[in-house]
Amino acid sequence: MSPEHTKSVLKDHGVPCRALTRIGGPAHTIVMASIHDLLNRLERAEDSVLQSTFLAPCLPGGRIQVRIAGLVRTFEPRPRDFEGWGLFRPQDERTARLSEPADLPLIAEYLQHLPVLRARLAVPLRGRSWLAYPVNESDMAQRWGKPRPLAIHLVEDGARFDPVVARGEGGGVFWMDEVDRRAEPQFAAQLQEALDRVVPPHLVSFAGRTPEMRAAYELAAQHSPQFAPQRAAQDPEQRLRQALVVGGGRMQRHQDRGDHWLVEWTTRDGAHHTSAISKTDLTVLCSGICLSGHDREFDLQSLVGVFDQRPDWV
Prior knowledge:
Layout: H1 3-12, H2 25-50, E1 54-58, E2 64-68, E3 71-78, E4 84-90, E5 95-101, H3 104-111, E6 116-124, E7 130-134, H4 137-144, E8 150-153, E9 163-169, E10 173-179, H5 186-196, H6 211-223, H7 228-233, H8 236-247, E11 250-256, E12 260-266, E13 272-278, E14 284-286, H9 300-308
Parallel strand pairs: 3-5, 8-10
Antiparallel strand pairs: 1-4, 2-3, 4-5, 6-7, 6-9, 7-8, 9-10, 11-12, 12-13, 13-14
């Protein structure tokens, strides 16, 4: 390793490097001392992780992460089917066991450090996860890229079309914070009434309706049993293309495989993917990447965002 490269590595880990510009023996001695100091710090951080109890959100079949002293560690939680906020303690270098569910003050403290995204719930997914759509597309575009449907996890007391405050974490993962009490409650009721009356999305109209509300309504209609006859009458290629365009992708071709479609499509950057999609509600049967058993939490629209910003459990 060259002195220049060593200096860069040590600087990245917070080790002072000003003396490394010297030439000769003293600089070499300082480099070796700094490397040993770095290794000792990493070893202490590793020991600290394995002896600590930490707070983490957890999804069934997923993984949990903790950062202590700048060191990020990933564990498989025990039990594997736990869903919620918990206090975990490492059992070994790979697994961590749930000590107890976390209380609300600890959860609130964790969430307050994450950026806010306001969204409207649209489709219940597995467990406490919901498919949602941002209430302000321009706000999402500024901070998370192209507006798209998103999965919000660990939702408490949520109902279809409720406006919620979500918190975004690295990799495009969003956790429920609270119901958005700033939003007007009548809009959720008006959207639900239209859904109950099987009003086509392009005919949903009331004072104050925004394009984002219509997008959330379209998501709900695509998954509603009442709209099954309309979905069956729609041209399959048009339906698939429309779903991908909303999510930010582009369809190349599709094949009819009986109860599902095999869809070949590309993301905004041109990356090619193949996914198995349910004919009934465009739910993902097989995404084409490892989603740790979470494939069916997404539909074709939201899957595009997963490929753009893969969460930590992928």
